[in-house]
């Protein structure tokens, strides 16, 4: 094989499989409604930790989250699925429009993630990586994913394609000819 086409798995972002995410979400759901919603929001939106702690009720409308002044001071829109939109609406029902949805620090969010994960290396950003990989596996166009993640360069998003390719190789090894 030509060395130029090999993928270095050591440089690929760490992510969770859908099953691993579901286990974490189930633990949180059985323990604490707010923590479950935080983890669900991280996974289904790809928000950065800092974006989640700055999220206000008024930023959620028309089945999307609008991130203002994200990384690089860029605004972007993140579509919401029906279930998450409904849950966020119920959760924020008694909040004022300018109230933070989750008035917590980034450290508190990290602690919530660690509380429900059995792996030491799982962080809020791991949910962002997992979101990206899950979207690509589901067939989301890489350019659309770039916009949702707020990446300035397509090459930042394309790294997730390498993960999907590695998964394909692993799965394909199961085939016996």
Report on the structure:
The chain is built from 8 helices and 3 strands, in the order H-H-H-E-E-E-H-H-H-H-H. With about 180 residues, the protein is mainly α. It has a 3-stranded antiparallel sheet. Strand 1 and strand 2 (about 65) form a beta hairpin. The protein has a single domain (about 15-170), classed as hpI Integrase, Chain A. The chain is globular, with a radius of gyration of 17 Å.
Task: Jot down its keywords.
52% helix; 177 residues; three-stranded antiparallel sheet; 6% strand; hpI Integrase, Chain A; mainly alpha
- Kindly provide the name of the CATH class: Mainly Alpha
Proportion of β residues? 5-15%
What is the CATH superfamily label?
Intergrase catalytic core
> Which spans have pLDDT < 50 for at least 5 consecutive residues?
1-8
Record the strand order, biggest sheet: 1-2-3
Q: Overall 3D geometry?
A: globular
Helices, by number, come to 8
Largest sheet: 3 strands, antiparallel
- Average pLDDT over all residues: 92
Structural class comes to mainly alpha
Q: Helix content range of the residues, please? A: 40-55%
Tally of individual domains: 1
In the CATH hierarchy, the architecture is Orthogonal Bundle
Give the SSE order as H and E letters: HHHEEEHHHHH
Number of strand elements = 3
Question: What is the straight-line distance between the termini?
Answer: 21 Å
Oligomeric composition of the shown chains? single chain
**At the third CATH level, what is the topology name?**
hpI Integrase, Chain A
Element layout with pairings:
Layout: H1 18-29, H2 33-45, H3 49-53, E1 60-61, E2 64-67, E3 76-79, H4 82-91, H5 106-116, H6 124-137, H7 142-149, H8 154-172
Antiparallel strand pairs: 1-2, 2-3
Helix pairs in contact: 1-2, 2-4, 2-6, 6-8, 7-8
């Amino acid at each position: 094989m030509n060395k130029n086409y090999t993928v270095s798995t050591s440089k690929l972002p760490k992510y969770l499989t859908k099953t691993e995410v579901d286990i974490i979400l189930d633990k949180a759901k059985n323990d604490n409604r707010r923590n479950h919603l935080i983890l669900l929001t991280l996974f289904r939106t790809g928000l950065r930790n800092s974006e989640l702690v700055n999220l206000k009720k008024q930023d959620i409308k028309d089945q999307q989250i609008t991130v203002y002044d994200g990384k690089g001071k860029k605004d972007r829109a993140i579509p919401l699925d029906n279930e998450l939109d409904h849950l966020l609406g119920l959760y924020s029902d008694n909040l004022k429009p300018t109230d933070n949805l989750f008035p917590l620090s980034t450290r508190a969010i990290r602690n919530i993630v660690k509380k429900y994960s059995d792996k030491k290396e799982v962080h809020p950003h791991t949910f962002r990586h997992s979101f990206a990989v899950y979207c690509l596996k589901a067939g989301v166009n890489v350019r659309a994913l770039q916009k949702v993640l707020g990446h300035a360069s397509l090459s930042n998003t394309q790294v997730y394609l390498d993960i999907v390719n590695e998964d394909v190789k692993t799965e394909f090894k199961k085939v016996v000819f």
